[in-house]
Amino acid sequence: MLHVETFIVGELQTNCYCVSDSQSRVAFIIDPGDDASYIAQKIAGESLKPKAVLATHGHFDHVLSAFELQHIFTIPFYIHQNDEFLLQAMKKTAEYYLAAPVIEFPPTPSKTLQKNASLSLGPYRFEIMETPGHTAGSVCFYCKKEHICFTGDTVFEGGAVGDWHHGYSDKQALLASVRTILSLPPETLVYPGHGNQTTVASEREYLLKPDI
Ligand SMILES: [Zn+2]
Ligand SMILES: [Zn+2]
């Protein structure tokens, strides 16, 4: 069975997820947006074996503590290559939004993610779904067998979708990505980058209107 634990981290209350295989105890750390030592402590306390740090996209509130966790556990960091440019801007953007000095280093991608690739966690497989729009390299991590999907800042509980006000965002691409997520089986649990978890069925109710 897969176990999902949520750590709400940082000023922007980002959901950092630790998804683990309860048998082998291997785990992925998804979107560590801050508080590396808190996350590391929880993970070590549960005797989990992190295998990689994954980012749904490159915004600082999803990757701020990735570098530190990479080094604490000596594990790789994966992101879509279209969002690598955001890592270079991480420090500056974080300082702008947080209005405070930021000492963290940006993570070093060990592997870039792409469509049709998959990541294995024990006997489970996570498909990489390319869901651009909020950022060009936004992805979702989808485990068909366990009906769970980590959606980053593309879909949120209650019919909200990611913002597209950044110069590099693309509203049409975002709406197409939202439709891709809504085409997953209705029982799929959706774990968004902020806020509560939801299901594809309940988001369909909110979002499948003629104007979207
Ligand atoms: Zn974002
Ligand atoms: Zn975010």
TrEMBL record:
One Pfam family it belongs to: Lactamase_B
Swiss-Prot/TrEMBL cofactor(s): Zn(2+)
Protein's UniProt keywords contain Nucleotide-binding: no
A GO molecular function held by the record: hydrolase activity
Keywords associated with the record: Hydrolase, Metal-binding, Zinc
SUPFAM superfamilies cross-referenced by the UniProt entry: Metallo-hydrolase/oxidoreductase (SSF56281)
Entry protein name: Zn-dependent hydrolases including glyoxylase
Provenance organism: Candidatus Gottesmanbacteria bacterium GW2011_GWB1_44_11c
